[in-house]
Amino acid sequence: MKFAAKLTVVISTFLCAALSLGGSWTVQQNFARVRQDLLRQRSRRQLYDRYALETAFAGQTEESLSILAARYEAEQRALTTEGAPMFSLFGENGTVLYSDLPHSISYADQQQALAAGETEATFLQGEGQYFLLLSTPLRGLDRPLWMVSAYDVTPQFRERDRQLGQQLLLQLAAMALTGAAAALASRRMTRPLRQLEEASTALSEGKSGAWVDIASRDELEQLGDTFNRMAGALEDQMDLLRQETDRQKRFVAAFTHELKTPMTAILGYSGMLRTAELPPERRLRAVNYIYHESTRLEALCRELLLLLGLEKGELQMEPVPVFSVYGEVRRSLPEWPLRLEWQGEQQAVVQADRVLLATLVRNLVLNAAAAEPKDNTVTVRCDRCDEGIRLCVEDRGKGIPAEELPHITEPFYRVDKSRAREKGGNGLGLSICAMIARLHGSPLELDSREGEGTRVWVTLKEAKP
Amino acid sequence: MYPVLIVEDEAAIADLIEDTLARLDYPCVKAFDGEEAATCIEEQTFDLILLDVMLPGIDGFALMDYIRPTGTPVIFLTARSSVEDLVRGLKAGAYDYILKPFAPEELLARVDGLMRHMGKRSRSLTVWGVEIHPDLRTASRDGKPIGLTPREFDLLMMLVTNRGMVLYRDTLFERVWGLDSEASTRTLDIHISRLRKKLGWEHQLRSVPKVGYLLEAER
What pTM value is reported for the model? Predict the structure, then answer.
């Protein structure tokens, strides 16, 4: 059952109960007063009849009683239009001496009225008519006599029934109206709930853009706001996950490629060598390929291990003079065909892992050289800035296209694949640099313009002297 | 007969494929990136294209758009082993695919099979007067069939695809009988002498002492 329907049913039920209780209570109250009045009037009337009959019966024989009673009744009927007496007379042992009561009032009813005594009134219904029975003994006579008077009170009872019917009609009309109003109101009030439900369903099906617009200025509006925030956060999370999965997929694809290419060459050439006696030049070429591809595999293995080791994040931090790191890198490139220049603070000492910092600078310098700088120069620059020491490697080479920049530190990502491979790169260099930078608490920042050159820098903490 | 186009950015592998196909006298043209390949496809006609999927510049899937109008059959070379990639390649119109790393023999067999199937190469080859049907696995001389056992035929194919080169005994045995065969290399010697007799190659199929066997190349 819908919530709106439940609300409607609950509201209507309570309203209906209240209306019918209130309505019938009012009718019954009114009728109780009417009965009271009737009783008072008819009691008085009976008293009057009793006195009249007592007087008439005084000293008369039992045989003449019925005649006298009939005469009295006829007289009274002629006199009064409403509430004319109808009565029966009983002698000892319940013998009926006279009766003018309609058939619908049975002997048993009369006996009951007699038993109830003088003070009690009995209401009777029979054959579409209502009667009020009152009983009283006739006093001051030489024998015991009882009189039961019946009064027709049908109009009063009819009036009550009419009122009850009217009340019922009124109640039905009120019910229909309020029911409709309640249904409308609850639909309106539960509209935010329906919106929330739709949005949650959309969200659970993984659809994006699931949000609600509730302006009911109550708890539901707050709930809607909270829901929107939750949906937003969830969507962000899903985006992140999707990106991460994409990255992993790219990594696996690139890694397989990186692994399978040298393996294909090694297996193929060695297979060739061990099958048949090749001419010397082909044998040499095969052996050379096997050697170079194995070297590539070995380098890939080494760098991957370095990258994995870095992910564990074990560092040996110590004060390291930046200039000495530069010297180390310079010495590690003895047959360097380009010019390597130093600029800036020679005295700067940073808090870093010496070996990793040297790897970082060396990789950046090699990358810069691969960009084929126009002036054949790679510059290492060291400046003091607000956050610490900024170590920057610059070249005036061909630069990196803007759309490639976000991916540049992903493992195996290459801007120019064939060229990079000729130079022996395997696409892990910048990933390693980014990882080293992160371990030193700094992002690896790149600023590059295609055709103009690239600047890559990290910001390191200065060591306390 | 048109050459085979090898589109592969790794020189090592391109050379390997070229060397392998040269054994069955397939002439080759090599392209090292997508653009070079696209130029080759525009300027020349090829019997077959061997296409690496991961290429710098235009990638293998994109190259298919250039190749499709020419109707040239394509075999994909890929290091990706995910089913999606293979299906994508085949849907793009590739005839077959070869996963890296591949054995040169496998490549040769697939290329040769495809070429003969497409009718680009004769269904049979003739070496020293013996006509060989690789598909039917039969051989004949002067129209008279020569009865060969399956092993003998495998051995014959190994010798034919490497004719002019001395084949090492151990490797030859391993290729024909498999790595975990119980038989000894003596079996190989027996098979060689039977082949010699059956095919009438008393002089052409030579034994090279301490090295292996050589089927002389025809001059």
Answer: 0.60
